[in-house]
């Protein structure tokens, strides 16, 4: 009787439409790493007993929209309420200490990572099984998208871009084994990292949010009006 209610049927149909949209987007992805490809790789490789901690911005919006939770339990942690950059790495270490032996993925953007990079020393010293998934889009992509949609292209580059940073070398300098992913096939490294039982870092190179607008409701409407590529 419950499954026959109009509300449940509507939710089931919405879920099916969403899944079809995701599958179509993945089929049409280009040579670079699509945000959906990263999320679905994490979905398929995070161990059953694993946890995932997301920073604000890029890391939060894609996982909260597209990561499919397959069973009940406290596996995902966000910082939406405070919105503070740099949350995910120290919080992931806390999650690892609270659940000893639990593999943890920490999703963080390059802007947020710059605020807490030195915590890699702590991670290496305690040898916690945390895999840092560092999304490198070369700047403050969230701000770039907001300014593009609100003020136009002339403001997008104002104080939002970084010089190239080799995050792999940064991690290795702190004693954390690291690698870089620049194409969808490179994401296969995640499985081994999450199952290693040791600190790891994977730098994932993606385009900033002004090149592909994330699925933020007000941004979707603005992107549709302006004819900009976007996710939903």
Let me know the number of strands.
6
Oligomer: single chain
Structural class: alpha/beta
Strand adjacency order, main sheet = 2-1-3-4-6-5
Sheet with the most strands?
6 strands, parallel
Number of helices: 10
Question: Under the CATH scheme, which class of the largest domain?
Answer: Alpha Beta
Kindly state the percentage of residues in helix: 40-55%
CATH superfamily of the largest domain: Thiamin diphosphate (ThDP)-binding fold, Pyr/PP domains
The Cα radius of gyration reads 18 Å
Q: If you consult CATH, what is the topology of the largest domain?
A: Rossmann fold
List the helices and strands and how they pair.
Layout (H helix, E strand, L loop, with lengths): L5 H22 L7 H11 L5 E4 L3 H9 L9 E2 L10 H11 L5 E6 H7 L2 H8 L3 E7 L4 H11 L15 H7 L3 E5 L7 H6 L5 E6 L11 H10 L6
Parallel strand pairs: 1-2, 1-3, 3-4, 4-6, 5-6
What does this structure look like?
With 232 residues, the chain is an alpha/beta fold. It has 2 domains: 1-30; 33-226, 3-Layer(aba) Sandwich (Rossmann fold), CATH 3.40.50. It is built from 10 helices and 6 strands. The protein has helices spanning 6-27, 35-45, 58-66, 88-98, 110-116, 119-126, 141-151, 167-173, 189-194, 217-226, and strands at residues 51-54, 76-77, 104-109, 130-136, 177-181, 200-205. A 6-stranded parallel β-sheet has the order 2-1-3-4-6-5, sandwiched between helices. Strand 5 (177-181), helix 9 and strand 6 (200-205) form a beta-alpha-beta unit. It is globular. 40% of the residues are buried.
